Amino acid sequence: MQKLSKEFYARDPVLVARELLGKFLVRNHGGVERIGRIVEVEAYLGPHDLAAHASKGLTPRTRALFGPPGHAYIYLIYGMYHCLNAVTGNGSGILLRAIEPIKNIDSRTQGPGLLCRALDIDKRLYGHDLASPELYIGELADTPPPSIVKRPRIGVDYAKHWARRNLRFYIRGNAYISKP
Fold this sequence. Notes:
Elements: E1 2-3, H1 6-9, H2 13-20, E2 24-29, E3 32-44, E4 72-77, E5 81-89, E6 92-103, H3 112-118, E7 135-139, E8 148-151, E9 168-171
Antiparallel strand pairs: 1-7, 2-3, 2-7, 3-6, 3-9, 4-5, 5-6, 8-9
């Protein structure tokens, strides 16, 4: 499996979000390799996007979002669920919402918190390089692009007109998406 390059991430977040679909999230931890195919994502476009954490500016929490592309931005929601984002630069990132279990994943992965729990991803990996042996996103050669559905993001009603933007993408017909 070929790891994605830093150049892959350093592009328009909407393009990166769409192209992450069908790629593989790989977590090597405790001597076990876990692999899931990315089937659902949401794009967050940076400081001007009222649904993005970056809209609050550079803070200790958002530091990784303003760092180099190809790193992990991880945060805690509801005091119990971690969420993983792939940083695309300038405060923008892609939330990984759901994966299809491929190898050594026995629990649910339909939702960003469940995805992180299934792969033992938490704040210890905040700012982590997404091309490392421990956590990376990779692709297989000659994989045809999936059929993509676009919808509004989930849980961002507070973000005014940004809540209605079609910035959530998922693979059409996949049983592992979090919500149709």
